[in-house]
Amino acid sequence: MSQAKVPAGLDRKEAEIYLRLDPERLPQHIAIIMDGNGRWAHRRHLPRIAGHRAGVASVRSTVETAARVGIPAVTLYAFSEENWKKRPATEVGFLMTLLCRYLKQEVPTLDRNNIRLEYIGRQHELPPQVRERMQWAREATAKNTGMVLTLALNYSARSELVDAFNSLVKAAASNGGIDHLLVDEDSIARNLYTRHLPDPDLVIRTSGEMRLSNFLLWQLAYAEIYVTPTLWPDFRGQHLLEAIAEYQKRERRYGGLVNPHHGNGAVTHNNGKH
Ligand code: IPE
Ligand code: IPE
Ligand code: MG
User: Fold this and answer.
1) pTM
2) Ligand closest to CA 232
3) Could you tell me which of 151, 248, 254, 258 has the fewest CB atoms within 10 Å of its CB?
4) Fold type of domain 25-155+198-268
5) Position 100 pLDDT exceeds 90
6) Are 111 and 141 in contact (CB under 8 A)?
């Protein structure tokens, strides 16, 4: 296992976990389902929104730690299309306010960490003032060349696939008709909201729920799944590093066979010969 020195800015606990990691085998893209804000608040006899508010510190810590250790891409499931449609207007309104505040406050920190912001989800359904703030924050960080932080806002994986298929059909229609419709894995992936990203290597879900809740269904085909009972407002950079440590213990096979001589993550392709 190769060991680099501890990156600047990690706290003692993070540094301790980092030293157990192999810096050559970090996940290139980590997706996180940030769940458990309501339960965190409930346990403290607080309103649900207090949990959402507390979750902002978790985002800050997780994002900074990911950037410091050199993760190229992080995608955060901030709220789903279902959340937007099925939760009370007061809660949705609070989430919008929190998002706008986060974007305004966080841009200097994102800049300092060389992080570029992106979004996935049906943005056109969001209120105009929220969209303006989102656009402002994206432009403000567009020149950054380090980690890509993608926020999933009003996101649904099924809607993403529907949008991708529709754009393929439209492209064919304006380019010679249905005979020019090309549907294969590459053309679908190129039309997903995540076309700027590699597929996630690792998906983390907090609060113990064992489901994907309509998140990146196409892209997570071969992701390692890590579920922690920790509620999102209690999650910090050190928990992210623990998830990466667990990821590095997994054997990734992609349907192939693991070569015992190469150890973790090495896959043999025998071209069908046994
Ligand atoms: C996750 O926390 C945040 C959002 C979905 C916006 P929840 O609000 O789902 O919290 P629980 O699952 O009720 O605890
Ligand atoms: C998934 O959490 C969405 C986000 C974390 C943004 P939910 O709390 O909405 O998921 P379910 O309803 O438990 O599946
Ligand atoms: Mg939830």
Assistant:
1) 0.94
2) 1
3) 254
4) Undecaprenyl pyrophosphate synthetase (3.40.1180)
5) yes
6) yes
